[in-house]
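pls ignore typos typing on phone
zinc ion + seq
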Amino acid sequence: MKIGHCAGCQARIVWGLSPNEKRMPVDATPVRVEDAPVGVALYTLALRGADTLFIKMDRAAMPPATAVHISHFVTCPKREQFSGSRRMQ
Ligand SMILES: [Zn+2]
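k done
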């Protein structure tokens, strides 16, 4: 798993592939599904060789306290610096 730090805010992030195979970062620290912002994509992590895959989860199908990861493009306080961030949401 490729763990790094955001160049904008220094948060710990995991780099991997979105469901459409685009490379993107998610927050390394998971949140509970009920604490996740409404309307954002929720992911669990899976490994495929050296790559980390982000598997999109259905919020309604997950029991409370399920740990999920959120795109760092959603949570980063410096996200305005990143070109294309709106597309990534
Ligand atoms: Zn950041």
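Strands lie at 2-5, 12-17, 23-27, 31-32, 42-48, 51-57, 67-70. The first strand starts at residue 2 and ends at 5. more later
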